[in-house]
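REQUEST
  id: r-88c1
  op: predict_structure
  target: RNase H type-1 domain-containing protein
  payload:
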Amino acid sequence: MSAHEGVALAISLGIASPIFEGDTVVVVATVKQAGQNYSNVGTIVEDVKHLHKHISGSLFQFTRKEANDVAHQLARFGHPIK
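RESPONSE
  id: r-88c1
  status: 200
  body:
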């Protein structure tokens, strides 16, 4: 899940007050939702929430895919470089 990778990267780089944007309403809402998540991806969501607590001033927000095109291009470019 890219949300997990994004939060982990922000922590490792020491980025202060990052804004995590996603173009999937369900994922953003699930990460922002209070309480335990028991869905199929619940363990990943709970891990994202746990990591997210360690970054003060950070937030998750929804953005339309059209507005998030640059991030998609960067993700496609950077994905093979591992």
